[in-house]
Specification:
mainly alpha, single chain, 60 residues
């Protein structure tokens, strides 16, 4: 279970860094930036949901 969490964590941060770099490269286009922020917040929510459910499974 721990390796899975680490793998997901690694992929999540890789994706985050990719999004940040792309936003910087494209010169802060406001509409594009809003879309990326929405996608990122959605992914962040999914990430926390995954952590909470894994902890719940571990406790249960």
């Amino acid at each position: 279970m721990i390796p899975t969490i680490l793998l997901v964590h690694h992929r999540f941060w890789s994706l985050h860094l990719t999004l940040v770099l792309k936003v910087k490269e494209e010169g802060q286009k406001s509409k594009d930036l809003q879309t990326r922020k929405m996608i990122f917040s959605f992914l962040l929510n999914l990430w926390w949901l995954l952590i909470i459910s894994l902890i719940g499974i571990g406790i249960g």
